[in-house]
Amino acid sequence: MFFQRMVEVDIELQENTEDKEPRLYELGYHLLPTLSEEEIPQEVGNIKDGIEKHSGAIVSDQMPRVMSLAYSMSKIVDQKRKYFDTAFFGWVKFHMSPKSLLEFDKELKHNKHILRFILVKTVRDKLPSAKKMTFLKSKQATDRVTKEQKVRKLGKQLSEEELDKTIEELIVE
């Protein structure tokens, strides 16, 4: 199913290469965990340079962070298959023409420091509106408030004479 989806995306990219209008894309990538802390910014720079080389314009990005993978991923490194349980995950949003994206995609496939990546067509994020957070009150606090409200309602409905009479009846019993 996954490979069928990837083939569909590749077919869509190849069919739309005639479009000259740049589109907004997002690249999510996993870098190999064997990279040192000094090599990470260099590899991110290489990815961004690739975007700019293909006439792309970077909109936003996030530097890679170490994360545990849901399952082991394999990659052939130095002619040996190695398995990885962690990777550095980062992403970049950018504008690029579909034709240039095909070329950029080929470059990413040949990058020996990328464990896995995904390119998706996306839309510009809308800023979320500020919503007031309503928190649930504890059941005891809710019960206490409702009892107080009932007493107040009863107190407002009864006149002082009726209230005194009710109190006397309760005391007598």
**Sequence of strands across the biggest β-sheet:** 2-3-1-4
In whole angstroms, how far apart are the ends?
A: 77 Å
- The proportion of residues in beta strands is 25-35%
CATH class of the largest domain: Alpha Beta
Second rung of CATH, namely the architecture of the largest domain: 2-Layer Sandwich
H/E element sequence: HEHEEHEHH
The CATH topology of the largest domain comes to Alpha-Beta Plaits
Number of DSSP strand runs: 4
What is the domain total for the residues?
2
For the CA atoms, what is the radius of gyration? 31 Å
The H-level CATH homologous superfamily of the largest domain, spelled out, is Ribosomal protein S6/Translation elongation factor EF1B
What does the overall shape look like?
Answer: elongated
Mean pLDDT: 79
Explained architecture:
The longest helix has 19 residues, at 139-157. The N and C termini lie far apart (77 Å). By secondary structure, the chain is α+β, with helices and mostly antiparallel strands. Strand 2 and strand 3 (80-96) form a beta hairpin. The chain is built from 5 helices and 4 strands; from the N terminus they run αβαββαβαα. It is elongated. Mean pLDDT is 79; it is low at 1-8. The chain has 2 domains: 2-121, Alpha-Beta Plaits, CATH 3.30.70; 139-172, no CATH class.
